[in-house]
Write a structure and sequence with these properties.
Length: 309
């Protein structure tokens, strides 16, 4: 089983507009709401691919009740850890030209006791899983080393870990030596405190991130694909050109498909290819929606993977 953790979930509100412009009128064409959070998204993808997954997530307030209702028919189990404060609502606005604006709330204040309950829920499940995916931002009040502690717990239990977060949570999580980290370009730039502009910059970035503690690194580059590093080997994965409708959530799909493939004992480079295919296929869909396995397979055939060294 693949276990995912979402400590800062959300209600994702998606708005489709005719255009995104400054100082002029635009019209809303469609609106929708659904469950949000990187770990929840990862479980949605893994389940749709036929994988076995369990999601652990927090829920509080009326928005938390809505989130639990949204998840009732998703087809995989969710363990809810109750918190006292209302979970957040995030807003995604896309237009017919492929422009996207993502506005996220910070999330609820989480107490030390609630942090302990979340960690205990994860530790209880570790004996029965092979992968633990730690996904998304930490909620306000959570210590920056929260993920690092769970990485250590997972390693002691013989469980592989994927860390998909940002900022100090990523920096401190790296010190615990996770199996794989999956920063996008902006997250890597913040982590390394430098701008990444060229291919040589990307190669240097994955090397430096690995040196910071990750066993494997996936650097997501959006429409340009991704770089992956394992040991001394670096691979470049390049997707076909597509008309991207909404790229939000593509990184979640990439991380989920990568772990799904690794869980099926596929090689690192092949898993990287699956990840890029899933992210690319999802970016073609409107709103925060994830491609099915069949849709991903169509893109997978066109994704190139080549060793850099």
């Amino acid at each position: 089983m693949i276990l995912t953790l979402t400590v800062n979930p959300a209600i994702d509100r998606s708005v489709s507009a005719d255009r995104l412009v400054f100082e002029d009128r635009a019209y809303i064409l469609d609106t929708s709401e659904g469950p949000g959070g990187r770990g929840i998204n990862a479980s949605l993808v893994i389940h749709s691919f036929g994988g076995k997954t369990l999601a652990i997530a927090t829920a509080g307030g009326t928005a938390g009740e809505c989130l639990m209702e949204f998840m009732l028919d998703k087809g995989f189990p969710v363990q809810w850890v109750p918190i006292s404060n209302n979970i957040r609502t995030n807003l995604t606005i896309t237009d017919q030209h492929g422009l996207t604006v993502k506005l996220n709330e910070m999330g609820p204040q989480v107490t030390a006791e609630e942090c302990a309950q979340i960690a205990a829920a994860v530790r209880k499940r570790l004996p029965k899983v092979k992968w633990l995916m730690l996904c998304g931002s930490l909620a306000p009040g959570m210590p920056n080393d929260f993920y690092a502690g769970l990485v250590e717990d997972a390693r002691n239990a013989g469980v592989q870990t994927l860390l998909d977060t940002d900022g100090e949570a990523l920096r401190e999580g790296l010190e615990a030596n996770p199996t794989v980290v999956t920063p996008n370009q902006q997250e890597a730039e913040r982590l390394l405190n430098r701008v990444l502009l060229t291919r040589s910059h990307y190669i240097d970035a994955v090397e430096r991130i690995q040196q910071m503690g990750a066993q494997q690194v996936l650097l997501s580059l959006g429409s340009r694909g991704a770089l992956g590093m394992m040991g001394e080997r670096i691979w470049e994965s390049v997707p076909p050109r597509i008309d991207a409708v909404c790229p939000i959530g593509a990184g979640d799909a990439m991380a989920a498909a990568f772990v799904w493939a690794r869980h099926k004992n596929k090689e690192f480079w092949e898993s990287l290819r699956w990840g890029v295919a899933a992210g690319t296929a999802s970016a073609r869909l409107p709103g925060v929606v994830f491609a099915s396995l069949d849709e991903t397979k169509q893109i997978y055939k066109k994704v190139e993977v080549r060793p850099i060294r």
